[in-house]
Amino acid sequence: MKMDDSSTRSSRKMRSPHDDEEEKAHFQRIVAAFKYYRTHSLQRVAKTENYLRSLPAHHQKLLENYHRHLTEIRACIESNDQIIKLIIRDVAYMFENVNPTGPTEPVKIVSSRPSGADLEKVHATLKQFVRDWSEEGAQERQTCYQPIVEEIVSHFSTDMCAPQDIRVLVPGAGLGRLAFEIARRGYTCQGNEFSLFMLFTSNFVLNKCRGTNVYHVFPWVHQYVNNLLPEHQTQGVSFPDINPADLPPNAQFSMAAGDFLEVCTEKDEWDCISTCFFIDCANNIVAFIETIYNILKPGGLWINLGPLLYHFSDLANENSIEPSYQVVREVIVGIGFEIEKEETHVKTTYAQNPKSMLQYEYESVFFVCRKPALDDDRSPSQTGGR
């Protein structure tokens, strides 16, 4: 898989030195969060161990199995740290024009302690291995990814066109499995991802992992609550469940790094845009929908599945709007899309620990929209803006 930075160049031509410094700082911050994983995680265990030792002796005796469990947690953390070292080992050379350091300059690590939010994102990234690249994640992928893949295959039949001539974009690609599955079927596919946590890790899986189930990760080791059995916290997962190199010889598969609204600007470029658990990642969901309309070719399809979690809702330093699905649907139609298929109450999960005593389930929306073959000049999409 190619880490394609060509689509970001136009948005970076007018960048100032200040912008570049901010980007370097951001890059270094994410690397620092990964590097701090082991220290932070072991400190959490040490705090519990110290409290355990302060308990009355007869309490400690009753908790001997729990004490042994904490030792197992330490071993899982150490194992995860070995995977993290592999993830960040070559990140300084991932991008041609996004590289925040020179080709021979080592990545400098910021001295300040990473934020709690960044460390939580490291934990979330470990769980993403399960959803995208493990046998244990097969059910989630069947529910969330398979309907999208089936719609693409149905609408772009090989009897009608050559798959490689169909260009599919997957914004919010995460660790890249949905985009990989589309490319595996012969379509020209590009993932787009903003999060460096995801980009670093998808680069490791897609470009460094060869073979099946060659690595082991402990994704639930930081879930200290709602465990029925001790081993449910320390359960390991092997990845990848499929060899990421198993693509057709002429497969066109790439990943574009950057903000969707800044990177994906070429009008009438894509035959299909597939979004899964993505559109609620916007401060302004209307800007996402409008951009999707603009960059689709006339007659192109938008396939979407997901909830409306609205990631920026209630964050102190972020603005956000959170319209209901009914209002979102009005926006979709108002911008010019024709809705061809629509299902509500689609039961889905996201990086769920199947053994946890607490289970989250979304009732997602699945729809297929088409941009009219003859673009209406009166469409709001022509007005531009964010």
TrEMBL record:
Pfam families: CARME. Its EC number is 2.1.1.22. Keywords: Cytoplasm, Methyltransferase, Nucleus, S-adenosyl-L-methionine, Transferase. It comes from the Eukaryota. It is found in: Cytoplasm, Cytosol; Nucleus. Residues 1-24 are annotated as: Disordered. One of its GO terms (cellular component) is nucleus. Its main location: cytoplasm. The keyword Translocase does not apply. SUPFAM superfamilies: S-adenosyl-L-methionine-dependent methyltransferases (SSF53335). One of its GO terms (molecular function) is carnosine N-methyltransferase activity. GO terms for biological process: carnosine metabolic process; methylation. Belongs to the carnosine N-methyltransferase family. N-methyltransferase that catalyzes the formation of anserine (beta-alanyl-N(Pi)-methyl-L-histidine) from carnosine. Anserine, a methylated derivative of carnosine (beta-alanyl-L-histidine), is an abundant constituent of vertebrate skeletal muscles. Also methylates other L-histidine-containing di- and tripeptides such as Gly-Gly-His, Gly-His and homocarnosine (GABA-His). This is Carnosine N-methyltransferase. It comes from Zootermopsis nevadensis (Dampwood termite). The lineage of its organism: Eukaryota, Metazoa, Ecdysozoa, Arthropoda, Hexapoda.
